[in-house]
């Protein structure tokens, strides 16, 4: 590998670690905030000391963000639930296994890219505001295209790796 290739690899590796760490900690913070707010809501129902009239909007935003950013970190780690790779063991050659994995990576990329396009469209077309806080709903929806973009980038990497695996084998 050339010196330039090693530097680029080091930069991508560092960016990968930063993205994974940021997503992990962001989802932990979102989960903690959601837990605190839900607990406060239960407490306030029995001891009505304050009004949480903003509760629904904030919980909706936190939950959506938690789901989509959490999905992105799980996507990166290839930890989504699946039925397993029971087809590869029946492939007669390593090249056939690589082709099968390339097909799966391409299908995943296609799905997440379509999701990215529609999520971006929904976010950009949203001009409404939330009724209580008055926050633009586009802010609420932004977790979808951001997480989809991250998943798309990692899917592209998987597809490219798949091409190289087919060529190598």
Order of helices and strands: HHHHH
Distance between the first and last residues' Cα: 20 Å
Low-confidence stretches: none
Q: Percent range for helical residues?
A: over 70%
| Biggest β-sheet strands, sense, barrel | none
Per DSSP, what share of the residues sits in E-state strands of 2 or more residues? under 5%
Form type:
elongated
What's the helix count? 5
Q: Could you tell me the radius of gyration in angstroms?
A: 21 Å
Alpha-beta classification: mainly alpha
Number of strands: 0
Give the tags.
mainly alpha; single chain; 169 residues
Kindly describe this structure:
This protein has helices spanning 3-46, 55-76, 94-125, 137-141, 143-168. It is mainly α and 169 residues long. The relative contact order is 0.11. The model has no long low-confidence stretch (mean pLDDT 90).
Helix-strand layout with pairing:
Elements (H helix, E strand, L loop, with lengths): L2 H44 L8 H22 L17 H32 L11 H5 L1 H26 L1
Concise summary:
The protein is mainly α and 169 residues long.
């Amino acid at each position: 590998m050339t010196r330039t290739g090693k530097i680029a690899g080091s930069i991508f590796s560092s960016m990968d670690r930063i993205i994974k760490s940021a997503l992990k900690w962001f989802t932990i913070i979102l989960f903690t905030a959601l837990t605190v707010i839900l607990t406060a809501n239960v407490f306030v129902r029995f001891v009505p000391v304050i009004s949480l009239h903003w509760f629904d909007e904030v919980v909706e935003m936190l939950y959506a963000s938690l789901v989509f950013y959490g999905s992105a970190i799980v996507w990166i780690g290839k930890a989504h639930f699946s039925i397993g790779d029971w087809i590869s063991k029946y492939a007669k050659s390593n090249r056939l296994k690589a082709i099968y994995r390339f097909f799966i990576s391409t299908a995943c990329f296609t799905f997440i890219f379509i999701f990215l396009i529609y999520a971006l469209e929904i976010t950009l077309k949203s001009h409404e505001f939330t009724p209580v806080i008055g926050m633009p709903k586009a802010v609420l929806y932004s977790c979808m295209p951001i997480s989809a973009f991250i998943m798309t980038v990692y899917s592209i990497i998987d597809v490219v790796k798949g091409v190289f695996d087919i060529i190598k084998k």
